[in-house]
Amino acid sequence: MKTATLNKSDIGKCIDLLLQADLRVIAPRLQPQVDEDGPDALEVLTFTEVKSGEDHQVGEGLLPLNGVKEFLFAKHEPLFAYEKRGKKIEIIPVHHEYPQTVIIGVRPCDAASIASLESVFSDANAGFEDPFFTERRSRTTFITYSCTAPDSSCFCTSVELSPDSAKGSDLHLTEIGDGRLHVEVITKAGEAVAKQLQDLLEGEGDQAAREKAGAEVTEKLTRIRDSAPIMEWLMDTANFDDEMWQRLGEKCIGCGACTFVCPTCHCFDIVDENKGSKGYRVKFWDSCQFDHFTLHASGHNPRDWQYKRYRNRFNCKFKIYPEKFETPGCVGCGRCIRACPVNLDITEYMAEVAHKAANPNAMKADPDFE
Amino acid sequence: MSNIYQPDLMTITKVIQEAPGIKTFHLKFQDEEVANNFSFETGQFGEYSAFGAGESTFCIASSPTRPEHIECCFRETGKVTTALANLTEGDTIGFRGPYGNTFPLDDWKGKNLIFIGGGIALPPLRSVIWNCLDLREQDGRFGHISIVYGARSVQDLVYKREIEEWNQMENVTMVKTVDPGGETDDWDGHVGFVPHVLENDFKPDPENTVAIVCGPPIMIKFAFEALERLGFKQEQMVTTMENRMKCGLGKCGRCNIGSVYVCIDGPVFTATQLAALPNDF
User: Fold this and answer.
1) pLDDT of B144 over the 90 cut
2) Taking chain B, what is the end-to-end CA distance rounded to the nearest angstrom?
């Protein structure tokens, strides 16, 4: 594998070089989320298109609010347009732009989620290829950046990842001290980007320093570290009716925030946005946490209680994704924990399931418990 | 770039009012090449669109042995089905499909078949009923065919003409029922819920027989229980699920029961397969 070093202070120059090569560059930026001049101005780290090397916060802060999902699987996407003419309908293809894109400053958890989305939207899933996703995916290169300061919601080491993992990366950057970055070329797409940046890259990387830095950050993650028994426990369908689901899920208010910030949640709705005799059929993000998501026309709802909807989400992450799509359903980014308005914590479920898996008779029939 | 979400256009060639709020459409592809390349097997479903309102999921209600057109049958319930119901002959709708798996007709050779359905669940069965009747006519590959069908009231029964046609056919037993209170003075069928009539009045012999059940989840549950008490084994019981769907392509994430996606892995399941799934339907 090819390695090099890069000055951290040269990242802005890297962005300028990529922009000069006519690439669209997406990077973490502090973006005002509320009225820019108002008293409530609040800046939030967000992946957004940048037009200059001066406007970026690559390697700063922890995780952008939005992740990279929306640049592959659009929040709102016209699938085609239609026009009614009497009894006839004309279907008009919609022109989409798929610019060659580099997303820089992607954290390892977000990078690992790309393969999961791909397993749903590519033709590997039942032979149906979502062309909008695959067109974008094939034109996007990911420059990842090892984490330096995980927070208390991070749990990537519990899902077989690490804060310095290069999984899903094309070109991987790790801070090795003294304002230097260790650069690893992972894929051909990464090599092409490295070529654009060659004037800024120097000699060879420092593998030992990179590994030491990764190990030091990994030590900072303190949440549970073994998710292997969780899937095994979920595979036993009897546990689908375990008392835990209702007890832990009762406080969920069904707002869906966890699903919208999640890098692997892939659910969407399809509707017609109509005006007069014309309109678009659009696909847009939906959430399995909403009560009408599975509501049948008859009024029957397979997931009629909120805890059942949360149970589905947990199962999707730790059973459905690995079993059906053979990719991880959870990358441990912790966004769902940070976003939850009622402090529902997916790692509490994980800990409880791990405990139940290890002690099959625990929590059953406590005569004093009411 | 082929767009999996883009429907083919079909013309409504005939509209039949089956029951209050329930219509059948006969549909033909507008593009000749699409029409020539189209084929489906019984049990499969499609996504039907009323442009301006969206898409709805229904089975293909006609038999592949009668390919001159395809049929769908739906109840006016929400936004899309209401918009569809407002369309008339000559209007255009969108169709994506066929999707999903099929009824395992090869496994049924030489066997007696019992079709059990309630209300708007007859259309999926009607496809396989006509398919089996037509094949039996050709080469006698199935034994006796029985149909147990019920609705809330006499007027809510769909395919009323065909129920009479099946009633007249040789080697077909037609058992019809309506819920208590739904009968009329001249009603000549049973009165009672479908699983109850099945178990207490019809009492089919499980020997060399397959039962195919379609209905709301609660009816499937009680029909399976009744069949088990009659001596049917799980592998002799088949159903088709009607979960809410949007894409039909295994991507939008709402029809799953555990790791099983009804749109891709179903909609046809045996009772054995259903018993292995988590209690989420």
Assistant:
1) yes
2) 36
- State how far the Cα of B165 lies from the Cα of A343, in Å rounded to an integer: 61
pLDDT at B1 over 70: no
How far apart, in whole angstroms, are the C-alpha atoms of residue A214 and residue A208?
10
* pLDDT surpasses 60 at A363: no
Contact B5 A283 (CB under 8 A): yes
User: Do A302 and B257 lie within an 8 Å CB cutoff?
Assistant: yes
Residue contact A300–B252, C-beta within 8 A = no
Q: Which of B59, B220, B245, B246 should be substituted to probe chain A, the one whose Cβ sees the most A Cβ atoms within 10 Å?
A: B246
- Let me know: does A166 contact A155? Beta carbons within 8 Å: no
Provide ipTM, 2 decimals.
0.93
Question: Would A63 be classed as within a structural domain?
Answer: yes
DSSP notation for B263-276:
HHH-SEEEHHHHHT
Among residues B198, B258, B144, B244, the alpha carbon closest in space to that of A291 is found at B244
Residue A262 to residue A74: CA distance in whole angstroms? 14
User: Regarding beta strands B22-29 and B8-19, do their DSSP bridges make them parallel or antiparallel, or are they unpaired?
Assistant: antiparallel
Whether B218 and chain A come into contact, CB under 8 Å, resolves to yes
CATH superfamily of this structure's domain B8-99: Translation factors (2.40.30.10)
Instruction: Give the number of domains in chain A.
Output: 1
Which tens digits make up the pLDDT trace of B242-258? Answer: 899 999 999 999 999 99
